[in-house]
Amino acid sequence: MAQTKSPDFIRLSQQIKTWGIALGFQQIGISDTQLSEAEQHLHHWLAKGYHGEMDYMDRHGLKRSRPALLQEGTVSIISARMDYMPESQTLTEQTLSEPTAAFVSRYALGRDYHKLMRNRLQKLANKITEEIGPFGYRAFVDSAPVLEKAIAEKAGLGWIGKHSNLINRKAGSWFFLGEIYTDLPLPSDSKAAAHCGSCRACLDICPTQAIVAPYQVDARRCISYLTIELHGSIPEPLRPLLGNRIYGCDDCQLICPWNRFAKLSRENDFTPRHNLNNAELVELFNWEEQEFLQKTEGSAIRRIGHQRWLRNIAVALGNGKASESAIDALSKRQNHSSELVREHVQWALFNLANAK
């Protein structure tokens, strides 16, 4: 019986990279599954409690750092990155510096990236299948216990910076990551070398000093955690430090010198929706739940729900100017059905009443 000819995996890896670029990714890299160093770093981070309420970071045992436990048969990983920056950093900084404007992390301004990237990764897997026939694989986009940044670093897509984000010498850090776990023995790319040097700009700029040491982020202090992952009250000492940031925080990326090489996204789906890149706080605070659900449909923002949306904006309003419109908007929410919302509204009104 004739045997199917074994694929030329070196040639195939080059084809995968070519197909990936054609599908809209900016770079494709390949790594093995050896993540022992990253596993140790993760365990130390968890032991310090830096994950806060993100129990899912500790829920899956070793599956996060040992890919074959998550997807049986995995021997190599295809890692992909896609630029998402929707506007210039100058415009982003202008919004951040305006107290009455609502600042939303730039990754969340357009369509939720999960579906878009997963669809592209599936198309890439389909191309491989067309070339060599059926093979074992599973695609991930921030949807399972995957150490995506450590994998991308091993695949040569960039290095993990002191702020814990991945940085690419030619593209900065404004990009998403996705992976295909595969049973194909593809040749690995070289791990990216680190180029942060003595720079500590991200540590110094962090509004809440959440980057407690190089490469160590205490999520419990991170504004992205406080506005997105935290379900309850935002700790009072940290509220003034949030400024006008209502969903996530980009300060450590905005200050990073490598982002002078960042490129704007080519994806129409990442274009800001509903003017969220420069909307006013009062305008967004006045959204009732139905309007919130309608205008965040297909957006990453929707996952926090209307109550946390109001919680976050109340804090931002309390950190701003004691204008008639801000006080009026907050006063209308004083009797909101949610205790969480009422608490943060009262805090904001007290702050504005006592502003110097």
Automatic annotation (TrEMBL):
GO terms for cellular component: cytoplasm. Transmembrane segments: none annotated. [4Fe-4S] cluster 2 binds at C206, C222, C249, C252. PROSITE patterns: 4FE4S_FER_1, 4FE4S_FER_2. The keyword Transport does not apply. It holds the Pfam family QueG_DUF1730. Its cofactor is cob(II)alamin; [4Fe-4S] cluster. Binds 2 [4Fe-4S] clusters per monomer. [4Fe-4S] cluster 1 binds at C196, C199, C202, C256. GO terms for biological process: tRNA queuosine(34) biosynthetic process. Cob(II)alamin binds at R64, D142, L166, L177, S224, C249, D250. The active site is at D142 (proton donor). Residues 187-216 form the 4Fe-4S ferredoxin-type domain. Pathway: tRNA modification; tRNA-queuosine biosynthesis. Its EC number is 1.17.99.6. Keywords: 4Fe-4S, Cobalamin, Cobalt, Cytoplasm, Iron, Iron-sulfur, Metal-binding, Oxidoreductase, Queuosine biosynthesis, tRNA processing. GO terms for molecular function: 4 iron, 4 sulfur cluster binding; cobalamin binding; epoxyqueuosine reductase activity; metal ion binding. It catalyses: epoxyqueuosine(34) in tRNA + AH2 = queuosine(34) in tRNA + A + H2O. It is found in: Cytoplasm. Monomer. Belongs to the QueG family. Catalyzes the conversion of epoxyqueuosine (oQ) to queuosine (Q), which is a hypermodified base found in the wobble positions of tRNA(Asp), tRNA(Asn), tRNA(His) and tRNA(Tyr). HAMAP family: QueG (MF_00916). PANTHER family: EPOXYQUEUOSINE REDUCTASE. This is Epoxyqueuosine reductase.
